[in-house]
Amino acid sequence: MDIHEYQAKEILASFGVPVPRGGLAYSPEQAGYRARELGGNAWVVKAQVHSGGRGAAGGVKLCRDEHEVASFASSLFGRQLVTKQTDANGKGVYRLWIEAASDIAQEIYLGFVLDRKSERIMIVASAQGGMEIEDLAETDPESLRRMTIDPAVGLTEFQARELAFQLGLKGGQIAQMVSILRACYRAYRDLDAVMVEINPLVITGSGDLVALDAKMSFDTNALFRRPQVAELRDRSQEDPRESTAGDHGLSYVGLTGDIGCIINGAGLAMATMDMIKLAGGEPANFLDIGGGASPERVVKAFQTVLADRNVGVVLVNIFAGINRCDWVAEGVVTAYRQLGLTIPVVVRLAGTNVEEGRRIIDQSGLPLISADTLAEAAAAAVASRPRQAA
Ligand code: GDP
Ligand code: MN
């Protein structure tokens, strides 16, 4: 789960990372008021969306007076901000962060990520920050420093100092960097984060380190024990198809083909998508209905898949272990009737209560296409696409 920049800054600040003073605004008037409240003579107005690359997309601006703050704010509110990291729809701007501007002498990149290969938290840092890490890896791979942290030991003072030296920091900046690194590590570990990124971490004109941007992402499987993180969720930043599916215990990813997929288990869903491709078709989605799917959940799965207008045929593939084929079959029959389906539906069932499941499908009197194997099911789905028939 992602959170906004201002939320990440608040969290990191509470662990001891220095951040500029700022305030949140929900309207242009409030943005102007925040600037006045902060004082000074320069402010940065920043669109709060779940994406990086806002600066290049026109979502961040340095303003010199209160009116400029309010007028830039009014141009941002309600807009869909399209960045390099979003899709063509972009992300809606409903909150702005107004910050006292900092003067920048140098921009550093600092990231904490989960490295699956070493099964460790890894720090990635570069003295040439400000850009996206992907760009940095391409334009200046030599500048990237990596360091893995042994979770049994934690991030040691020694490691943190070594990294500060590698980044070319001097004097008091070294102690500041050590404290920032340790604070980020504690925030990452204590809150079950999967990513903490500060880009840029700047050295100001007076030589101090300050986090000008912040990004954090959290392990959704751990949200149950982090209510203070879970409440930071902002649904306006999520793909409505995927978050609605999530509410019903379904994990759904929209794709571009025309064969809607309803599968149990992520591995089987991937294999089914491969089989569809092998048979010459294109899947419309990835969907895992999970274990113990009730008939009601199967109906929800149909609704989710059919919300995609491109879907011309549905392939249901269930290998029931925890699931029960008869429940799934009941769900398919109910969905077909309730939702008034007219498109072909291919059903392949295997595992627990398979005979009962097949009986329900065969005796339903509905034009459901039964298949015995995954290969047969994929071929039948491809063959019964409406475009194919025409
Ligand atoms: P991102 O583009 O979504 O990563 O947003 P950032 O928060 O990183 O802001 C984009 C860029 O705006 C930064 O890389 C800075 O160069 C610039 N910027 C942000 N805050 C300030 C500031 O206080 N002063 C100045 N001079 N530039 C800033
Ligand atoms: Mn940034």
What report would you give on this structure?
Helix content is 36%, strand content 25%. By secondary structure, it is α+β, with helices and mostly antiparallel strands. It folds into 3 domains: 1-19 and 103-237, ATP-grasp fold, B domain (D-amino Acid Aminotransferase, Chain A, domain 1, 2-Layer Sandwich); 21-101, Dna Ligase, domain 1, CATH 3.30.1490.20; 239-384, Succinyl-CoA synthetase domains (Rossmann fold). It starts with a helix and ends with a helix. Helix 12 links the parallel strand 17 (345-351) and strand 18. The model has no long low-confidence stretch (mean pLDDT 94). It has 14 helices and 18 strands. Manganese (II) ion is lined by residues 52, 199, 213. Its cofactor is Mg(2+).
Q: Nearest-angstrom radius of gyration?
A: 26 Å
Q: Count every helix, treating DSSP H or I runs of 4 or more residues as helices.
A: 14
- The CATH superfamily of the largest domain is known as ATP-grasp fold, B domain
The number of strands is 18
Estimate the global geometry from the Cα principal axes: elongated
Briefly note the structural class of the backbone: alpha+beta
Major sheet, described briefly?
A: 6 strands, antiparallel
Q: Bin the helical content.
A: 25-40%
Number of domains: 3
* N/C terminus separation: 43 Å
CATH architecture term of the largest domain: 2-Layer Sandwich
Average pLDDT taken over every residue: 94
Poorly predicted runs of 5 or more residues: none
Bound molecules: guanosine-5'-diphosphate, manganese (II) ion
CATH topology of the largest domain: D-amino Acid Aminotransferase, Chain A, domain 1
Approximately what portion of the residues adopt beta-strand conformation? 15-25%
CATH top level class name of the largest domain: Alpha Beta
Subunit structure: Heterotetramer of two alpha and two beta subunits.
Protein name: Succinate--CoA ligase [ADP-forming] subunit beta
Organism: Tabrizicola soli
Family: Belongs to the succinate/malate CoA ligase beta subunit family.
